[in-house]
Amino acid sequence: MLKVIIIGGGIGGLTLARACLDAGIQVEVYEKRSLAEMLAGPGGIFIQQNAMRVYQLLDSGQIYAHLYQQGGIILEGGFFNKSGKLLYLNSPKFVQEQNLGICLLRSELQQILYESLPAGTVKTGCAFENFEEKADTVQVFFQNGTNVEGSVLVGADGLYSNVRARLQGLERLEAPIYSGSCCWRGYFEGSGLPLDERYSWSEYWGQGDRFGYFDVGSGRYSFYAFTNTPAGGTDDAEGGALNALRSRFSSYANPVPAILEALTDQPIYRDDIYDREPLGKSWGQGRVTLVGDAAHPVQPNLGQGGCMAIEDAFELVKQLASISVETVPVSLRQFEASRCERVTRVFSTSRQVGQLGQAEHPIACFMRNWIYKITPTWLADLQFKWLFDYRPYSQPTSLGTEKLPLL
User: Fold this and answer.
1) Do residues 297 and 276 lie in contact, with contact meaning Cβ atoms separated by under 8 Å?
2) Residue 371's CB: how many other CB atoms inside 10 A?
3) Is omega for the bond preceding 255 within 30 degrees of 0, making it cis?
4) Is 399 buried (19+), middle (13-18) or exposed (0-12) by CB count in 10 A?
5) CB contact at 8 A, 320 and 336
6) For FRET with 234, which of 34, 90, 315, 342 sits at 20 to 30 Å CA-CA?
7) In what order do the strands lie in the sheet with 128-133?
């Protein structure tokens, strides 16, 4: 029997573990953070229909059901200028769906995924150190002096992946590519605020900054705000994140100022936004591969970063479900090659949307807004429609008894 060792207890790692168990593959997850830290996370996240189709197949559909019970359903939403004029309206109808998935707080997603696994599957406080390949196994070493052995090692350890660094013979990865902007994230209670009930999400575009929010269920909303700024900045000079946000977005149309005025002691997280150039058709070597941000980190402009990790998890297990220990390296390279085109397109499109949203020159902003406003909705939809084309297939294993697309 295959044994998969996963480094990283984020969305990709936990989803991969559940997929392995469904396929009858032994799996262990090792996470360097404490359990409390692993189950935390800033703001909310989009789990769109392409990724929800994976969860509909996993764990007898229980994760899928829990997500719809917990989160806010993605319905109509769109891009607006800072004055509140609609530039582009996106509706589930453009992909013939009743909804586009769900949004929820990252911490709640982590909790649902963690609880889908048997006790003892995830081992926290275990920082990855190195690996060594043998004939039919890979030995994994941790900084606490322990080691484990498995058939496959998967790095699901994010933007600064230590597994990826070791694959490249490095102590640590080179610095990622700075996008030119930082992002604040948090959440708020929607009650009493002038939110347009027609939209489950909205994003307002200014000059070198933008503000968005989305429904995460139970009357709560997650917000995010971007601004162009040098890397490594802080809000100390403005007296903290909330003061900085109120100052920068005070000229925006409601509900943006109203949302910021309603914030009190909720935590607000600020991060610089980075990505890395795609690796191409080969991400790993031998019995080692990568998934999610460890392989293909993208800017958060499409709501698809987590979704790509979820797709990776399913597609990797699909490759591993019916192979022998001897053929693991070949199957891992096939998995990587099969994912290359799609994740590269997500990377490129996310950068393009970010460049539009963060345009700073007044003429560039005017042209952007004007083009979006005059473009027919069906034509504007084409830049996003392909994202929802993904249909996970269940193989003739315990992942499913029929090789049929999920409709």
Assistant:
1) yes
2) 12
3) yes
4) buried
5) no
6) 34
7) 128-133, 138-142, 147-150
Per-domain boundaries in the chain: 3-176+275-389
Cα–Cα distance for residue pair 205/19, rounded to 1 Å: 39
Taking the C-alpha atoms of residue 125 and residue 9, their distance in angstroms, rounded to an integer, is: 11
To 10 degrees, the CA torsion angle through 52, 29, 341, 283?
180
Q: Which two tokens stand for residue 207?
A: 């000059």
Backbone angles phi, psi at 199, to 5 degrees: -115, 135
HSE toward the beta carbon, residue 59, CA cutoff 13 A: 20
Pairing of strands 147-150, 138-142: antiparallel
> 257: left (phi > 0), else alpha (psi -120 to 50), else beta?
alpha
Distances (CA, A) of 243 to 182, 234, 239, 266: 16, 12, 6, 13
The secondary element (H helix, E strand) that includes residue 108 is helix 106-115
Rounded CA separation 342/309 (Å): 12
Q: Does residue 43 sit in helix, strand or coil? A: coil
Closest C-alpha among 321, 401, 312, 338 to residue 4? 321
Tell the CATH topology of 3-176+275-389: FAD/NAD(P)-binding domain (3.50.50)
- Report the candidate in 213, 290, 228, 295 with the shortest Cα–Cα distance to residue 259: 213
N- to C-terminal Cα separation, the chain: 31
Residue with structure tokens 């990724």?
A: 51
